[in-house]
Amino acid sequence: MTASIKDVARAAGVSPATVSRALGKGPVSEALRAQVMEAVRVTGYRPNLAARRLRSQESGTIGLILADIGNPFFTGVARAVEAAAYEAGLRVLLCNTDEDPEREASYLALMQEERVTGLILAPTRATADRLAEAPPAMPVVLIDRPGPAGLFDSVLLDNAAASAALVDHLVAQGYRRIAGLFGQTSGTGVERAEGYRATMARHGLAPSWRFVPPQAEAAEAGFAALSREGQPEAVLASNSLLLMGTLQAVRAKGLRIPADLALAGFDNEPWTGLVEPGVTVIEQPLAEIGRQAMALLFERLRAPDAPVRKVMLSGRAILRGSTAPRRVLASML
Amino acid sequence: MTASIKDVARAAGVSPATVSRALGKGPVSEALRAQVMEAVRVTGYRPNLAARRLRSQESGTIGLILADIGNPFFTGVARAVEAAAYEAGLRVLLCNTDEDPEREASYLALMQEERVTGLILAPTRATADRLAEAPPAMPVVLIDRPGPAGLFDSVLLDNAAASAALVDHLVAQGYRRIAGLFGQTSGTGVERAEGYRATMARHGLAPSWRFVPPQAEAAEAGFAALSREGQPEAVLASNSLLLMGTLQAVRAKGLRIPADLALAGFDNEPWTGLVEPGVTVIEQPLAEIGRQAMALLFERLRAPDAPVRKVMLSGRAILRGSTAPRRVLASML
DNA sequence: CTGAAAGCGCTTACAG
DNA sequence: CTGAAAGCGCTTACAG
C-alpha cells in the first residue's frame, strides 16, 4: 500500500521519531533532515491525517455548516471563511443542509465525530432552538441567523435596519400598499419580517405578509396569495431566491415593474443588475461576515470563558429602477 | 474530555470490543446491545472518526475537487454527488480550487493524506496534464473537463456537438459574423472552441475568437478586443460567467440584443431567462453528471482493472430571444 | 456471543 | 540532536 513513516525511516536510515520531527517542527540536524526529505521523495510518502489527528488530538479542521450551497450568499461567506482558515493553517469541512433540520442534526453529530476545532453555523430556526439544550462540544459561531440569546458568538446583519431602509425607501418613492415575503426556516426571515412590520406601523401603513419556504417556487405561490388579498403596489422579498421567484411570477402575470409593481429585496446578485429594470436590493458584506466569524472563533479558542460577542454588520441599499418613484396616473404605454 | 469507547464499556459493564460490535455490525446479544446503547446515551459518547479510520483503513469519504464553488454548474453537480454519496453511506470532502493549479495540487495532496476512497475532479488544463505523470493513489473520475486520454474514467458533455448546435442555430437565424469567447483554464473551453471553429468552417464562415480567464471581467475585456477586430453580429460564450460578462459589456455599450448583437452561451441559469430578451443557452444535465460520476466511481472500486470508461452526455439547447432571426434592415426603434 | 490482545500510523514525553 | 517506548481510540482476528 502507501508508504508509512516507518518506510521513510528505513529508507533514510533514521528512526520514525526523527522522520516525524523532520516533517514537523521538532529539532533535527540539517543533515538528517535532508536525508529524510530525500527518503520522502523516493517513497512517495504522504502523512496519514487520521493517525496524526488521533495522536495529536487536534483535527486542524473548522466545520462550516450552511443552509444552502446554491445560494450565492453562502458561497460568498464560505470563500471568506476558507481563505481565513487557510491562512491559519486550518482546513474547512463544508456541509450543506438544504434547510433541513434533520441534516443539520446529522452534520452536527459528524462535526463532533470529526472532533473539529471549531464550528461556524447558519442554523434553521428549529436547530437554533435545540442548540441551547444540546450545545456542541467545541466553540460555535453563528452566522447570518440568530440563535438562543447570549449563548453563542455570532455575526449577523442588522436585519431590522435593513428592512426598515427598504420600507422607508419605498414609502419615500410613493408606495403605500407594500407587501412582504419572508423565509420561514430562518431567524433571519423573522427578523426581516419584524423590521418590515415595525416600519410599516411607523408609517401608519397596514402590513401584508407571508412566511414561505425559501425557494423560488414558494415565492410564486406566496405572491399569488398576497395578490388575492388585494394587488400590492410593491413587494419586499427577504432573500434572493424569494426575490427571483417573485420576479418570475410578475413576469408570468405580465405586470410591469415598477409601473404595476415595485420590487425590492436582499442580496446584490449579478442578475439583479442585469434584468430590466434593475432590482433594488440590500447588499450584504459577504467577505466581512466570513472574516468576522473566523476572528470570533479564534478569539474564543484563545479565551474560552470570555463574554459572548455579537457582531452586527450593516447592509448597503443599492437603489435601482425597480423602485422608481410611483406614477399615480396610469402609465402611458 | 469527550467520552471514549472505554468509558462506555465501563458504564455498560462490558468490554470495549462489545461496545464496538454493538455500535457496528458485529454479533451482540440484544440484552448487551441495549445496555451499550443506554451507556452511550448516559456518557454522550460519539465515536472518534480519526481512530475508526486509522484502524479500519477506510476513510468512508469521497473527495470532490471543483474549480469554482461560485459557479452554479459546479454546485449543481456537487448536490448530486453528495446525494449519491449519502445514499451509499459515504461522506464528501468538498474542495474549491478557484481554477488555481497550485491549489489543485495542494488539494490532491490533501486527498491522499485523507486516504479518501475515491476522487471526483474537474481539473484545469495544467493539472489535467500533470495527472498522467503523478496519478493519485485512489480511483479518479474526471467531470466536465477532459484529462489525459484513456487514463481516467470521465463524465463529459459533448462539447463539440453543443457548440455546433449553437453555431448552426445562429447561422440559421441569419447571423454570419459570429465571434466566440472561451475559457482558457479548462479543457472544456478548448473543446467548445474546437466545435465552434469546425462548425464555422463547415458553413464557410471566418471564425474570430479569444481564450480568456473564466471571469465576467475578463469577458468584458475579451468582448472589447473582439469588437476592435470588427463588430460581430453574434457572440458565443463558453460558460455562464463569460456570458454574464459579455452581457454586461453589451449593456455598457448600449447595444441592443439581438438587433445589434445576438448572444448565446452555456448553462441555463435562472438569470438567463429573466433578462430581456432571454439568452439562448445550452442546458447541461447537472444532476446526471453527478450521478454518473458516482456510478463510475463505484464500478471502478468494484472492478479496479476494468477498461476506462468515458460517459458523454448531451446538452439541450434552450432557444430564447437573444438569438431571434436577424433583421437585415436597420431595426426601427 | 464475548473478552483479551494486537495494531492501524502517527507524535511526544523520557532518556541519553 | 536522536532513539526507544508508550499511547491516541478504535476494530478485528483469535480464543473460548
Automatic annotation (TrEMBL), chains A, B:
Keywords: DNA-binding, Transcription, Transcription regulation. Pfam families: LacI (PF00356), Peripla_BP_3 (PF13377). Residues 3-56 form the HTH lacI-type domain. The keyword Iron does not apply. The keyword Zinc does not apply. It comes from the Bacteria. InterPro entries: HTH_LacI, LacI/GalR-like_sensor, Lambda_DNA-bd_dom_sf, Peripla_BP_I. One of its GO terms (molecular function) is DNA-binding transcription factor activity. PANTHER family: LACI-RELATED TRANSCRIPTIONAL REPRESSOR (PTHR30146), RIBOSE OPERON REPRESSOR (PTHR30146:SF145). This is Transcriptional regulator, LacI family.
